[in-house]
Amino acid sequence: MKCPNCGFSKNTVIDSRPTENGSIRRRRECLSCKKRFTTYEIIDVVPVFVIKKNGSKEMFDRNKIMTGLIKSCYKRPVTAEQLNMLVSEIESELQNSLTSEIHTTDIGIMVMEKLRQLDEVSYVRFASVYREFKDVETFMNELRLLANEKIEQS
Question: Which end of the chain is less enclosed by CB atoms within 10 A, N or C?
Answer without folding.
Answer: C
